[in-house]
Specification:
- By secondary structure, this protein is mostly helical.
- The chain is about 75% helix and about 0% strand.
- It contains 16 helices and no strands.
Length: about 325
Amino acid sequence: MPSTSAPSELGPPRSRRRLLGIRLTVERRRRLVGLLFLLPVVIYICVLYGYPLVVNALTSFENYSISSFYTGKAPLDGLVNYRMLWHSGDLGQYVETTVIFTACSLAAQFGIGLALAVFFKHNFPLNSLLRSLLLLPWLLPVIVSATIYRWVLDQQYGVLNQVLLALHFIGHPVPWLDSGNAALASVILVNVWAGVPFNMVILFGGLQTIPEDRYEAAAIDGAGASQRFRYVTLPLLKPVTLVVLMLGLIYTLRAFDVIYVLTQGGPGNATQTLTTWSYLLTFQDYSIGEGAAVSNLLMVVIIILGLLYIRTTRETEASTS
């Protein structure tokens, strides 16, 4: 008798191949629909973020002048703009000021925000009202807050000096915004005042996610309040802490409005950071290529920090899973 083989050995029957083709077609359509939904987001990011970054990067390698706005031509200069920044003698000073401003602001914002978050975790009368009032500095535009503090810190007519003089804490008005060290400290304090509410809100939300039985177990084991905070609160709050510190670091590095409104980088460039220096080079000295180079340096630092944050977050998630 002639040997016959099963249909499965010869290959799928026609109906099975047709069903498989239909499934592939449906899957392709789903992917296409998903890509179409993503398309507006991709266009938005490319137009509003990608294009300015590319143009700024190219400008830092060009001899871009005022005439370039009209002619649209800017000859390539290679690394000339970066060499000029390196040999200007100001880069080191402004980097140091940026580091001091960022480190002090970040440490104070996080420390005060964490202390307030722990404080408001306890139930007491008017808890919600006080938390809402502390959000006001965060809700106000930074320019408005900086303008108010410029009046408060004025040497001759500022409220702060008048109060300190009335209480006999000082013998003469303090030049809060007209002396180098005092101006830098004043700018840092105003930036801290504006950033503490953000830290408090995020850290308070993180504290709410910590199970109470962890604290109860630690208390049963004889741990005091400080030990519970060190061995329970801080480790379990680590993911939220990373988010707060990273966002605060990026916001502080690119801080411009609070410094410009209060001191415009003065006196004597005592409060000049890389961000305000980039603005000064671009819009006052019209050294557009150098200003773009400064902003590119900041962008590289922020990208490196972002990559470190992503790596640290993944390692934290892997260790907790």
